[in-house]
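Table S2 (continued). Query chain:
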Amino acid sequence: MREYDGRFQRLEDNLAREANEIRSDTQKRLDALERFIKGEVDSLNSRAAAEHGERCNTTDKLGRDLAYAARNLDTKVSNLSEQTAKNLGELRELMLQQYKILGAEIKDKYNQMKAGLDHETSQIRSGMIAREALAEMLNEVALRLKNEFRISGL
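Corresponding output:
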């Protein structure tokens, strides 16, 4: 029995020692795994933070670029509006000048045509008077030929 007891005691001691070694080995491996995981998590966190910072910087830059582009666009639209208004004013002025020039030309042409018509009218009237005088004279000749011409007051 003592021999069995000694064997059991050695067996227990061996099992306890091996259990302690396994426990110690497992603990070392778990500690190493924990350090590795912590290192990886820290690395991922630092990469995520760097990437987040980079994206924030990029977003800020894009925001500034967009604001700058909007200001430039507003400036260009404003300049274009001013230029359009200026060109429109110049065009109106030019049209007014052309209107005045054309009005003066039309008035000159009207006056020329009126003068020409007045001249033609006076020529036609003078021609009509000459015809009336010729008709009276021919009428008088006809009456004298017929001996029917009488001078009033004789």
